[in-house]
Design goal:
Number of helices: 5
Largest sheet: 5 strands, mixed
Distance between the termini: 49 Å
CATH architecture: 2-Layer Sandwich
Helix content: 55-70%
CATH topology: Nucleotidyltransferase, domain 5
Strand order of the largest sheet: 3-2-1-4-5
Number of domains: 1
CATH class: Alpha Beta
Shape: globular
Strand content: 15-25%
Length: 185
Amino acid sequence: MRVMGVDPGLTRCGLSVIETGRGRHVIALDVDVVRTPADTPLHRRLLTISDTVEHWMDTHLPDVIAIERVFANQNANTAMGTAQAGGVIALAAAKRDIDVHFHTPSEVKAAVTGNGRADKAQVTTMVTKILALQQKPTPADAADALALAICHCWRAPMIARMAEAEAKAAEAKRAYQARLKAARA
């Protein structure tokens, strides 16, 4: 499975692509950070992010996109910009029929460090070790994008099992309700 991890942001948007095989073995294929100047109009910044992300999707052909979920942030402007960047990325994936999954920062930190409250330095150190990189990815947005992709690779089997279980439960509920309706008639 090939996963594109995205740490969305207007000023810096981390992008990564990793591949996984069996178990927890993952390989980094590419990582970068898209930067847009704060003094550039919002629509131009989003266009830059969109163009770059679309190029990555067309070049790397990921099976799935893992995007950091926006959470409550004390700075509403930062949260809004992050959400807008994430939306542009999700839209680009939808146009290519690529599945998108959102992961919270604490899910990602827990997946790669074992601690949902790990700091950026701990995440970067573990990403470097997990991927056997020669040097730590910088800036932190690059490491975060890699961590998102790793998190998804490791959580994907569980996500698939949960979706299958939910579908079976919904089908069982429909069958049960049909039997009830038939018994009442």
